[in-house]
Records
---
Amino acid sequence: MKPTSLCLALLCAGAPLASAQTASHPVGIEVDVPEGYAWKQGYRYKPSTVIYLEGTAPEAHPPAIIVNAIDMGREVPSEDLFRQTREVFADLDGQAEEVELPNGRYLRVDFQVQLAEKGGTRRTVRQRCYARMHGRTAFYFFLANLEPERFARAVTAFDALVAGARFEARTGAGSTDPESRPAAASEAAPAREGEAAPAREGEAAPAREGEA
């Protein structure tokens, strides 16, 4: 089935920032929190979000590292997940490459989008996605909300986080909506052309184009 268009489902309620060396979720994922980031425990950027890390520096647009997990209902071959992910990012001219990391094989995709800002302006951000299967769960790691020059400075720490992620088999996942399983990459993607950027702690998300 062809993946549906990317969608954004921001939840704007505030969540406490947690000081921690690691961040984890019962779905069976644990990551090391890079220097300069804090774990927003309980914050769900999307229904599938299981870990959300936010930059701690006083910036107007803090970087975000997002881990989304979707229960596919069965074990899906990596090749099928990679093909679906490539299709989702094709309209964004995503640069996709399969990579072998110490903890498994991933599809890595770099892409750029124009995000809507308050006042009707737009901001170009560069994002990186790593996708992989573990058991019956599809995991998506995103580095988001960074202009190209800041992306270049932040990507090394993000790559190290993904390479060091620890996985453990679990029976459930971050999102179990049957409608999302055939289009996991669409449901997991953080933002696409014309959509709003992540909100800062305690802020409402900027309205999308055409919204009040």
---
Amino acid sequence: MVYGTVDRATACMVPALFTFTSLEESFEWANRSALGFTLLALLCDSVGFPANPTPDGSASGIWGEFVTAIAGRLPAERTRRSASAASALNATRAVARDAERLRDVMRRIKGDRSYEGWLLWHAEHELVEHTIRLNGLFEADFIKEIADVVGLTLEECRELHEYSKNPREVQEVGQRIARGRGTSVDEVLIECWLSGTVLRGVYHDELAQGRRRQHFRHPLRSYSQTAHTNAKSVSCYEVNSAQYYFAGILLAASFAASRKPVERVKLYAENLYAARAARFSGKLLLGEPDTPMSHEVGLDRAVREAQQLIRDGVLDVSDRRVTAVAGILSSLPSQIIGFWLAPWAGALLGLGSAAVDNFYAPGPRMIRRGRSSRKRLEDLAQAGAGAVDVRALR
């Protein structure tokens, strides 16, 4: 059995996506991560969350609702002061010693067209949850390294970390950032938080390598690959078009079902793991990842398989509340989309197909009424998979 880990930053983009009124309002990192997480959870033998340097507390907010919905189905690694954890911590600190390189990483992250939307979403929905769960907005383990990167004295960084343990203060910081009225202290705190996010990603990569586990990372963390991981050869783990469109059905059906994010999260979790169980029991047949399928064949197969699962009472894609849905990936560029796996696995997860021609790029549409009509399922599949030129994802 292949055991993999997916960082919380990636998984968090599923409930993030469900907080938007329209999928057009979302941002690329959320779209890409939500579809990627859905494919991973649907297709991989076993997927869990990696351990953080600092033990996690209880989850809350929309992330807490998501964790509750998938409770017991996506286990978290326990933080152990093992040799591999110590090695990962030391390796991360070694990377952090090159403060200028990390500052360059952060500049490039902030230059990404998704960064602004990502920051605003976290400011409104996640900063308070984050500080409660990790007892501060950034890890105490990396205070010295973060101080060097941001340009603070060690004492200043410690004081800021202590300040960030107060959920009420952090909530006010988030509100000011969301309104575009962040103070100079707010901006430094966000710099520390972003630095911690990058370093935690490096830690997860190193930990996965030490424990010989595949690790799937958030797109933001692709900017922080180390020279060691860059030196490893990688190849593409393909996803055929039927799998791609079926994942689209799961995402778009959940979005279309309700205007309430919590209800969307619950339906998504129910459908995802019902489909996962069907796949491993042989009731969901989407072909192997490297099975060549055209756009038309893949879409037809995904829809037929979904119809069968609906007839069997496995999936619920009923339109509890019909809503306009735009393509989840409508903003993505025509380039390879991948999630990092630990170097030992020697692969990237490519969200695409080997040969898909004349890809249809849907715009906003009303999902048609009808519990399982073929046309409605086609709409869901294409809205969920989004307007991506799959030929670029080979």
---
Amino acid sequence: MKLTFCTAFLSCLLVLTSMKAQESFSSFQELADQYLPQSYLHQNNQLLQRQAEKEKEWAIYELLAPSGGIFSSYTNNTRLPVSLIPSEILGGSAGTFEQVRFGQKYVTEVNAYAEIQLLNLSGWENLNYANTLLEQTKSNNKLSIKSRRENLATVYYNILELQEQLKALQKNKTAADTLYRITQNKYDEGLVNAQSLRKSQLNTLQIELSIGEVENAIQQWYLLLKTRCDLAPSANIQINQIVDTSALLTAVPIRENTLSQSNALLNVQAAESALRSSKLAFAPTLSFFANYLLQGNNNQANIFSDQATWINSDAIGLKLSIPIPSASTIKQKVRAEYDYQIAKNQASQATLQARQQTQQLQLDLDQAQLQYEYHQKQYQLFTSIYEKQLLNYRAGLLGLADTIDSFNEMTDSHRQLVAAAVSILKAQTNIEINNTIN
């Protein structure tokens, strides 16, 4: 019993630990792998693919185009039609006619009819179009997932940048507090005036305001992140990624992404298939049919009367149908021709854009790494200058205004350094998305 209780306790502890771990993410990949497969986008993509698969099945069914059914009718001829026949047939005078009613008072019919197409060129082309549509749906799903990952990465790295800026501001707040204490001591000793003290205090308050603004911006971006992940606003998500500066300047291989190009080529295939289908709409069709008719004639208003005479007949044959072009089919053919030309132009454009996108990813990474190297050296320089000027200010060799200016230069440089570092991570993630979803 004790062992069972311990096992249950450890299991609950592991579950709680796992749930807690899922709320904290140390990389974008962890976040995307956790929430994107559960998103409505992923569910809709699965539904779209199933729909395309069903349409392919329907195209196979429409290829044979089976039709027919069983029809039944019961007729009461309340007044039979009148025919004129020569009277001499009935024993009358020649040259005269008698009015005679032919037909049956009550007629019951059961008719079974079936037809299946043997030659249906348009149906074969519709099946080919359905196959292309299925592949096109899969390609569109990949494009939507790639786009969602890229959009999610933008939100993720905006949060990461703001969090790194918050850390830098908190560090700068400590430095500003130190500067304020030095100024306060100088003011107490009568070495600086009240204006210098207020200026030092205002510098501290300005950093506190910046901290509050960044914290508010972080919450806003977290709310957008939950929206992109299809989560409730009350969901608990925390990004705890540590910016590893050692891997920021490494080269990342980039492969040309042909997803958009392949999708455009599928659009060309679909447009070409639609054009062929519109042309084949004028082609004849050959069908096999079978018909069975059971007719019951009766003079009494009773379907199952013993006096009813039942007659059956059946027939089989081939039917050739040659459609006449209509305004609708001609209009559809002309529209398909223009759609095909547009699709070919878009495919050529997609090929150029795929190459440009590869080059742009490389340029973005190179630019981010270049800025990071510059701001890294700049921050080291401004930090060294501020530390020396702080010592000079403490010794009374430098005024407060120059010291605060140096402090602001250092903090601005630190902010730019953080932004450059996160830009490299974002560029590397975009390259990874480009290389994997292809």
